[in-house]
Amino acid sequence: MLKKLVARPNEVLDIRTEIIAGITTFLASMYIIVVNPSILSHAGMPFNAVLTATVLVSAFSSIAMGIYAKNPILLAPGMGLNAFFTYSVVLGMHVSYQVALGAVFWSGVIFILLSVFNVRTAIVKAIPQQIRFAIAGGIGLFISLIGFENARFIVSNKTTILSFATLNVITATFAVGLLITAILVARRVRGALIFGIVITTLLAVPIGRLYGDATPFYGHATLVDWKGVFARPDFSLFLKLDFIHSLELSIWPVIFVFLFADMFDSLSTFIGVAEAGNLIDEEGEPLNIKESLIVDAFSTAISGLFGTSSGTSYIESATGIEEGGRTGLTAIVAGLLFLPFIFFAPILSVIPALATAPALVLVGVFMMQPVTKINWSKYDDAIPAFLAMILIPFTYSITQGLIWGFLSWTVIKFFTGKRNEISPMLWVIDVFSILALVLK
Length: 440
Fold this sequence. Notes:
By secondary structure, this protein is mainly alpha-helical. The protein has helices at residues 2-6, 15-29, 32-40, 47-69, 81-92, 97-116, 119-126, 129-150, 169-186, 192-204, 215-218, 252-277, 289-306, 317-322, 328-338, 341-344, 353-366, 379-394, 398-415, 424-439, and strands spanning 75-77, 154-157, 161-164, 311-313. The strands form two sheets. A two-stranded antiparallel sheet has the order 1-4. α9 packs across α17. The longest helix is centred in the middle third of the chain and has 26 residues, at 252-277.
């Protein structure tokens, strides 16, 4: 019965590999349990209530992905979407968080309709193959940048925009953890990323205790802290969304941005991890794309109901795929691992962001392989692909990379006499891309 639920036809289910992959995906994504509440609390939402909502949305959505779509992709409230919710909608537009939650819910409902009636599947098929390869590479660069940033290895610089920090106790610990993890990966050690996370956590324990001080980097002297075991769940945000006022005309641009950003973030994630993990069908399309998009839409809708910003597919799923995860069991395991943290969230403080950083950096390596398929000698293909790939990390936005990849593809193909390579659906996507730029 388990094999029927999570595996595809003619696919052998290696339970041990899938479980390791699920654990790896969870460890790379678990930061959202505390990061999401810390961001949404600025919108006036109770921290513990958002934490409870985050855990439930992540668990239910990921389990649904595994059972219904049979894909090894984890879902959780999206980074970027939570910042838009807090700083642009609630604080910037002075919209109550209850109305903003309603906007999230309605964007999910529209999302479901688009998925059920195959509109989103048609959008996927309209994305040029060269752009798809670029998306995978761009997401890989983006994940690596996040890892380097989490380790404070790369920092902002007024003169050069970004720069190497300095060689200090934090960057040295990260470098050692990265090299150890890289050696394990190169030697094909099963569970290499998990071992890397555990080893880097142990290396970080003495910081602030025996040597060094993490305060200038993370705001507290020690990196690994024991903050207890138990925390009471808080369901006070459940069904606190405003269904009616969130449908007012002034809120529709907010609904559209939630819809567009979530849609293209999830589409790019599916395409990126599918290309990197060879999770594609005979026609070169991501496996079970319709079912996966329906689950993603379901995640957004229940996010509004439970009390958090939009749920979406996570690029960190690539860590589990690299460990061999190929079926829905990976997503089910990752989803189940969220559930205990309704009660035991303080335990997560033991694993610092520094410890997961090496795994994120190495995922960038794994996801660069599709870039070799880009036709770099054909500039009308190469330029849009390059823009899509490079703008994802440079703008810190997957959506912006896609938008400019689509628009540049259309313009260049149009003016080089290759209009037949612009599908009717791509013209529609271009219109919505422009609207997203104007409305954001």
